[in-house]
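[scheduler] slot 2 assigned
[scheduler] job type: sequence-to-structure, two independent chains
[scheduler] chain ordering preserved from manifest
[runner] begin chain α
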Amino acid sequence: MPCKCCGLLLQVEQLWGLLCPLIRKALSNITVETYSDWGTCIATACESRDPRKLHWLFEMLMESPLNGEGGSFVDACRLYVLQGGLAQQEWRVPELLHRLLCYLEPKLTQVYKNVRERIGSVLTYIFMIDVNLPCTRPAASPRIGHFMQRVMRQLKPLMEADEEIQNHVVEENGVGEQDERTQAIKLLKTVLKWLMASAGRSFSTAVPEQLQLLPLLFKIAPVENDDSYDELKRDAKTCLSLMSQGLLYPEQIPLVLSMLKEIAGSSSWHARYTVLTYLQTMVFYNLFTLLSHAAAVQDVRWLVIGLLEDEQLEVREMAATTLSGFLQCNFLSMDSPMQAHFEKLCKTRLPKKRKRDPGSAVDTIPPADLVKRHAGVLGLSACILSSPYDVPAWMPQLLMDLSAHLNDTQPIEMTVKKTLSNFRRTHHDNWQEHKQQFTDDQLLVLTDLLVSPCYYA
């Protein structure tokens, strides 16, 4: 005779045999008003439950969630419901996570934005338990490192391309030879959605894996903020912002700085500019970790000072802004070698002016001597602007050094005028106290500068 347990199991199987077709039909007819209710329903039913007792439900939810029946909205809703159930199981269902990842990988090149966003969110929970802890065995769930190796092979056409990716819509409509590149662009969009979704939900940051994408993201991300940019560029910029805010462990700092130094040598000035904005955020979010790493501080110092001599004006100005911020938060210190370096650059002799056609292309290419001289002036300006509410002992001499370049050619003249204007604005309220740090001769020169006709020109 059958035992009592077998009879109960048979009844449970009959119950699920009745429920699964009903749930399957309901999910096929899901609407905007009901999808969140279904997600809550499945997540609540799976919370703190043994997955072996719910395997009928999980198997039903794993049945081709992206089958295209009902359109992209229904596909995204099926993934949402499945994600709610798996998220409650956490570490208990590694086999299902591996199966789901294998199912999703060929479908990462989705055309529809809502499906890409949902896949990115699901990937976050698939890799949630991939955390390296000391004195523990690795989890049985999927590993980000293995996944990224496969992704990077498919992104190779974009990594090797020298030109910037301007318009992904044109690429998506390409045929023939552009198919591989088009697929890589679509894949990258989904990967970016995953990185953005995981930034606020993951237990740790996968720094070594994310570093592999940095060169590509620096090449794609725009310099300025503009809502007219396409989805790929906006997501790349957002990803860089989120990645720069990630927590770094001491052993990861050399890897990140090495990658940033490599990208700083890129031929794209957009990439070199974005390195500086990335560096600002990274340093401020990991200030105390970096300060305990003396070699890292020196690497950052010379990386920023080196970009002060960049051939592109926008990069030089951003390097000056970055240096000023680092000095102001005491990450870097204004010392004699730094001052001497900037003063030496300021003394670079400029070639004599030659008569040129105002519309000539030669005028758009600054000579190397002008770049060096401007770098020195920007360095002095950064040091001065790093102390907006006091006058350190070294500031009077730097102001005198800067004043000697007021009549230099552009863009040096404009840099000097802006610096003097900001100095006057930030020190005006306590000027009676601040002027005690200057000698009579220095005050005479400074007063002449701030009220002279050339200052208002």
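[runner] end chain α
[runner] begin chain β
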Amino acid sequence: MSGNNSTLDAGMSGNDSTFAGATLPEAMADMADIASRLATLETNSNIFFMMINAILVYLMQAGFSLLECGSVRSKNASSVLLKNYIDTMFCGIAYWIFGYALAFGGNPNAFCGTRFWAGETMDSGDYMKWFYQFSFASTTATIVSGAIAERCRLEAYMVYSFVVSAFIYPIQSHWGWHPAGWLFKGDGEVGFQDFAGSGVVHLCGGAISIVAAAVIGPRLGRFKAKERAEPVTHHSAALISLGCFILFVGFFSFNGSSQQAISGVVDGLVASNAVRNTAISGSFATATGLLVAKTVSHIRTRGHGRWSLFTTVNCGLSGLVAICGVCDRAPDWGAACIGIIAGLSYFFWSWLMVRLRIDDAVDAVAVHFGGGFWGLIAQPIFKKNDGLLFKVATDEAYTAWMMSLVGAGLFIE
């Protein structure tokens, strides 16, 4: 102890003599330099946080590719992988030329941005935001590839990928996420809220999937009987499982980074709650799918039911999609409820697509449309302290719920 004290005393006396010899202007200059360095460190910390998470969100492309590849017949694996690769490359082109300018460009109005076409006049401080938002746009575009797998011409898919990334998703993300967007502003007091994209990303991609699959039509032999769909063999359980794990990792970054900062007082707490709720919702949705699928199979086969990897995986993904909208504010029990209902909603939407004779090769509609729609509805219900379950009789809570319904309608339309 005495050795430590003597060292400390020596250090303090040295510091005292140093400051004592400094003039006031010099001390103020040193303080200004320290403040500048801290500000730079804060900025760079936020940039690094967004960069790492954007890369992990981009890795979801690999997850979608593996999941879709394993879910289709082996003869079409190469086509599915090529479409997923085209998605992200064409998205990069389209989002650079048009997309980012419409979504987050300069001189914005209530409908869209009007500057930064092909990066013109964009400040270097926006470069990281461009890359971060590009990873989200790429995710939206690739949702459809699974729904129309095994029957879409490559040329047509190129056009689709460019149009969605350049115009459809950017304009909708401006409405819902940009402070100038008319949906974001709402009635001036209560606006649309979708923290990580249950509606802006997933419901949008799911709605496009319904239209695309319906217009293109089913695969040959998919609907032979009037009320029955012929089963399609999934050629690789390993690819489905690996793709699901990669998507889980991507969703942790997708939701955990949507605060888009880490240096603020509450940023770390928001990110922590988001990833925790993501894990809870995904886990409960997975368990729901596992048990319901087994029970249904057991009843249909009169005691010889089988476990379903494909259904279990997709139910888990539905839970991840649904929690996106309120992962930052939901209590843990709320995340569990959202996950359970998301798992159940998957079965409804999957059944409805077959009933409507719409061939969705990987159940992208049930996962993204069903999960995204429920996520938007759940957001104003389970939002801690402000949701309908916490403020039942307040006008603000009902207005928030109505704004979610309006947003859902717009993204579907």
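[runner] end chain β
[qc] chain β: The chain is about 70% helix and 0% strand.
[scheduler] slot 2 released
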